[in-house]
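User: Design a sequence. Structure:
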């Protein structure tokens, strides 16, 4: 008697999780597309209109990542106490305000102010907040929802680079920013308000302030080191990818076509993670995914467009799975209690790495050949993969 009665309940839970993953995935697509992927569309026209260099205009975006890193731990603590829905709602309003400031500002000071506001909003509403929202609602069962979020949001860059390029031609860069601000308030805000359930607030006694298990600090350092190195490399490659591909002998058309493989490969990696998730341990999947990047770099030694395409595919798959791991690894290693707080602290080195990578690596890109830069990045990714080897899930001797 109990088994038939249980089936509708399990079915309902499955539908709820699917809906949560889909809603948060759309939320993240909109939030990432209208903020993080915005500079690629508006930086050039804005710099020209404001009478500034592209370096200064893009510097405001790097500044926003530093602002986001500052706020991330505070946001994590707040989510642990109150649940993630409120943070996501506030983030939409804050991001919209920042976009409006960018759209009406007439000088560089307003441009930096707008990106400062957006930086705070990104801390409150991008992946870490969405993962923490899922973790607060589902606990240790949030892994598949986190995968679903990243699977849907994996199209954010492709969608919004295309949409932004179309809209800016008719609206101008200021009109685009104001349209995005309106989209945040008219689409993103009511969607989160109506479809993301609130999590019951947790008392302060539920926070993780007591003694940590042995090896906790070492585990945090290894996880933080892995993600910081990988996001540093991803940020550095992203701003130089076309020049690097042309530097290894590809034509301009070949470089653009092969670079375009990275986005779909990220989604393919996430689909593979979703399909194979139940067959291999989480840590083993993360380790294999981490090795795809250095393996792709080795392919470049063969030279030619096919080798470059192989690198782009493996690099993209590795990055796609790594984004899932950013949510699932901390949940598995540290548990659901205090999960948002852990994500907030892990976000600090990641966002600092993202912010400084383009400037720090610029001299190397000028000094070395393109192949040397890509091989060096692959070697650094291989070192980062070693950080995952000592990790063990709680209560298990092996991954």
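Assistant: Done.
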């Amino acid at each position: 008697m109990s088994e038939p009665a249980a089936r509708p309940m399990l079915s309902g839970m499955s539908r709820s999780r699917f809906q949560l993953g889909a809603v948060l995935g759309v939320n993240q697509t909109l939030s990432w597309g209208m903020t993080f992927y915005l500079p690629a569309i508006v930086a050039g026209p804005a710099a020209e209109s404001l009478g500034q260099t592209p370096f200064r205009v893009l510097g405001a975006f790097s500044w926003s990542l530093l602002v986001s890193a500052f706020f991330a731990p505070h946001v994590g603590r707040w989510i642990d106490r109150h649940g993630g829905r409120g943070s996501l709602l506030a983030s939409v309003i804050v991001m919209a305000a920042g976009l409006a400031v960018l759209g009406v500002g007439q000088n560089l000071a307003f441009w930096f102010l707008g990106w400062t506001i957006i930086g705070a909003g990104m801390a409150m509403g991008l992946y870490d907040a969405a993962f923490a929202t899922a973790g607060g609602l589902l606990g240790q069962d949030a892994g598949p929802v986190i995968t679903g979020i990243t699977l849907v949001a994996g199209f954010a860059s492709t969608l919004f680079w295309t949409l932004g390029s179309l809209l800016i031609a008719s609206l101008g860069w200021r009109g685009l920013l104001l349209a995005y601000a309106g989209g945040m308030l008219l689409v993103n805000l009511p969607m989160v308000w109506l479809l993301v359930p609130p999590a019951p607030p947790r008392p302060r006694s539920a926070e993780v302030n007591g003694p940590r298990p042995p090896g906790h600090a070492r585990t945090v350092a290894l996880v933080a080191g892995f993600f910081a190195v990988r996001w540093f490399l991803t940020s550095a490659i992203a701003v130089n990818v076309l020049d690097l591909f042309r530097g290894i002998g590809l034509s301009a058309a070949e470089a653009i076509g092969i670079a375009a493989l990275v986005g779909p490969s990220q989604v393919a990696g996430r689909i593979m993670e979703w399909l194979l998730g139940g067959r291999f341990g989480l840590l083993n999947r993360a380790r294999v995914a981490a090795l795809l990047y250095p393996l792709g770099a080795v392919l470049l030694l063969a030279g030619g467009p096919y080798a470059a395409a192989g690198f782009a595919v493996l690099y993209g798959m590795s990055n796609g799975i790594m984004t899932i791991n950013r949510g699932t690894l901390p949940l598995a290693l540290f548990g659901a209690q205090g999960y948002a707080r852990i994500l907030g602290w892990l976000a600090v080195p990641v966002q600092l790495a993202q912010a400084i990578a383009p400037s720090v690596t610029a001299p190397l890109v000028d000094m070395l050949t393109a192949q040397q830069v890509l091989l060096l990045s692959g070697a650094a990714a291989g070192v980062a993969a070693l950080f995952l080897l000592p990790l063990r899930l709680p209560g298990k001797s092996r991954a």
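The chain has a mean pLDDT of 87. Residues 13-195 form a domain with the Growth Hormone; Chain: A; fold (CATH 1.20.1250.20).
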